[in-house]
Every structure is written in C-alpha cells, then in structure tokens.
Design a protein that fits this description.
Anthranilate synthase, 13-stranded mixed β-sheet, 8 helices, about 400 residues, globular, alpha+beta, about 35% strand
Length: about 400
C-alpha cells in the first residue's frame, strides 16, 4: 500500500529555525526568510561509485512511485522533497533522505508536507541558553604542515600542466554536552542570512555558493573563487574590495572556476549568460569574487533533471582545481585527509526534478553522539599564491561555524 503524502498551505508561523513539531530536525535549506526545514526521516539510503548521481535519481523516482501524493499547493518545491548530501569523492558514501515533515516558506507563502494521515502540530522552539564548553584541537595537518603543502602545490603548478588546485584542511571541536543542530542553525542564521543554511545527516553549514538551481527550464549557478578577509572597518573593507576586484591572482582563480561551470552546462543549456566581470560578494567574515551563470535547458535536453546537471558540474574548479583529474591526484597526495561530504553537492530536489544544490562549504560534520564536530575550509592555490595568506584565508573561512558554536 502506498504511503500518503500531503501538502497544504499554512498560515503565519515563526522563522523556520524556530519551528518545532515534536520530531528531531533532520534537514534544512534556508536563505533569509525563505527555505525548507525538515523533521524526522521517512526513508534514507546511500549511493556510492561512478553512477551515484544516476543511482540517486533512480532511487528518488522509485520512491516517488510508491507515494500517494496529495498536493494542494503545486509549483516548484511543493509535494515530496528529497534532501541530498553527496560526498566530494565518488568512493565515499553520499546520503539521500526523505523527511517525514517539511515546512516551506517562499515569497511570503508557507506550506507543510507530511507523510501519514494526521497533520503534525507545530509549535515554537524554546531556545536554550548558551552552555557549551568547547575544546579545540588540530585536525589532520598542523598549520605548518598545511602551509608546506601549499608551497608544494605552488611548485607543482609552476613546473607542471596544473593551473589550480584547491587544498582543504580540518579542525576539530569537542563539546562537554551534545551540540544541538537546531540551535546551531539558529546561531548561523543570525550572522549569515545571505548564505544557504543546510543540514543533512549531521553535516551542517552556511554555504555562499550555489552549484546549480533548476526551476522548470531555467538553470542558475553562483560561482565563488577569489577571497579576501574583512577587517570590520567599512572604509578599509571598501578599499580591500576594490583590490580584490583587480587582483590578478584572484581573477585568475575565478576565471578557472567560471570557465569550468560554463563548459559543464554547455551541452544542456542554450542562451547561456556569463557576465564579463565578477562582482564582489560581501559576507560578514570575507569577501568573494562572484559570478552568476545562467542558461535555459535545450528543448532536446528536456529529459535532463537536476541530478544530470550536478553530475556534469561536480567537482568544479572552485573546490577541486584545473584540470580536474590532475588536481584530484594532487589533492589525494597532499591533503592527507578524507573530505567526506565537505565540498560535495548538498540541497533539495522535488518530485519534478527541480531543486537547489549548493556546495557544502563553511560547514562541519557532527559525530553520531553530537559531542564532536569536524570543521573544514579550503583555498584555491594558483601560481601567485603565498602560504601565509592562504592559511589566513582558511582561518577566515572557518569563522562562520566557529563563532556560531561559541554562541551555543
């Protein structure tokens, strides 16, 4: 017998991160006042290997065929929703999760989707007072060891066919009591409302980078590459933004990333628009060079869903390097760690194959008991990179999760 899944409009409710329905929070995708918050798990699975994106698509379509869907709202993001979190490497497991309850807010309209016969009762969460004590320790590599790997990467770039490589690092925090994902999301939201707040299977973060959005036939990808740390002084930061927009090193890094996205979308999209120059995206901790690439799915590619686009795009030069295969080999050699689902595609997909998939950046992986969280940051290394500057950039990219944790 098919499970019944129902979507109904909602009236007014508190902010998404403040909603409670008596089930644990298991997923989120929130930007500003809009997005998704999910509770409970109806079904989940993992995929791995070269066919993981097509396997994920097939699993989702099969699960949809088993549902008795009653959608009284209609449109993108209504009806059953799949939350996805893919590993950076095809050799690591990726997670697919269908929640029991999803609450959505978009453009002033709210709706709820639930599995079962009775609509859940919603309430406002009671936020706990700050009580965590965190013990920070180094990750896989020390600061000095990681800086040496940056120097080695620059040498390889100057002497080899490699143009760019992205090197990541990790740090670990241990807590005296379990870290509450809902409280961490709420803490991130207060400081980083212009990012996409995500949570899937205890991977939690606030990413500024949208790998791909598919809305009917319109494709959008926001590319970030080239970074400078903010000082908090508006006049000084305005000067730094100007220098970032003219930096040959950062413009070179950005060009590789934009080119990789545009080339990946070309077989599927027509009327592709790639702006001639990036804009500077201002975040509380850093500023990035950013470009929004857009296009329209070709009529001949009408069968294309968002899984197809993600498979073509990942990994982009923004999280891997150029050329991809050479950069991957160097990452495996020099990083000395397993990225897991850091820098992998993360987001949501609806029953029509539309959705939003970001890149899992500015994030941390909670341990099963929530007493430990592993934070990640990565930097794009090109011929003009300097280890001390890249280390400082990585520390700035760790700030969103670090400061959010310190407020718990």
């Amino acid at each position: 017998m098919a499970s019944r899944i129902t979507t109904e409009l909602l009236g007014e409710h508190p902010r998404l991160t403040e909603i409670d329905c008596g089930l644990p929070i298991t997923g989120s995708w929130i930007r500003g006042a809009d997005g998704f918050i999910a509770f409970g798990t109806y079904k989940s699975t993992t995929v791995i290997g070269k066919k993981r994106f097509s396997d994920a698509s097939a699993w989702w379509k099969n699960e949809l065929s088993r549902l008795d869907i009653k959608n009284n709202v209609h449109g993108v993001g209504t009806g059953p929703i799949l939350f996805t979190s893919f590993a950076f490497s095809e050799n690591e497991p990726s997670v697919l999760m269908i929640p029991e309850v999803v609450i959505v807010q978009k453009n002033g309209k709210s709706w709820i989707t639930w599995i079962g016969e009775v609509q859940p009762e919603l309430a406002t969460r009671v936020l706990s007072e700050p009580s965590l004590t965190l013990d920070w320790r180094g990750g896989t590599l020390s600061d000095q060891e990681w800086s040496q790997r940056v120097d080695e990467s620059v040498k390889r770039i100057k002497s080899d066919s490699l143009e760019k490589v992205v090197l990541a690092r990790d740090v670990i925090a241990q807590s005296n009591s379990p870290i509450d994902p809902a409280s961490l999301l709420h803490s991130l939201e207060s400081e980083y409302p212009s990012t996409w707040l995500f949570l899937v299977d205890d991977l939690i973060g606030a990413t500024p980078e949208l790998l791909v959005r598919l809305n009917k036939s319109l494709v959008t990808s926001r590319v970030l590459a080239g970074t400078i740390q903010r000082t908090g002084d508006e006049v000084r930061d305005a000067t730094l933004a100007g220098s970032l927009s003219k930096s040959s090193k950062d413009l070179e890094e950005h060009e590789y990333a934009v080119r990789s996205v545009a080339d990946a979308l070309a077989p599927f999209a027509s009327s592709t628009n790639v702006p001639e120059a990036p804009f500077v995206l201002h975040l509380p901790n850093v500023m990035h060079l950013a470009t929004d690439v857009t296009g329209v799915i070709n009529e001949s590619a009408a069968h294309v869903d968002i899984f197809t686009l993600v498979a073509a795009l990942h990994p982009t030069a923004a999280v891997c390097g150029t050329p991809t295969d050479t950069a991957l080999e160097l990452i495996i050699e020099l990083e000395s760690m397993n990225r897991g689902r850091y820098a992998g595609p993360v987001g949501w997909i609806d029953a029509h194959g539309d959705g939003e998939i970001g890149i899992a950046l500015r994030c941390g992986q909670l341990s099963p008991d929530h007493l430990e969280i592993r934070l990640f940051a990565g930097c794009g290394i090109v011929a003009g990179s300097e280890a001390t500057q890249e280390l400082a950039e990585s520390q700035a990219k760790l700030l969103p999760i670090r400061t959010a944790l310190q407020r718990l």
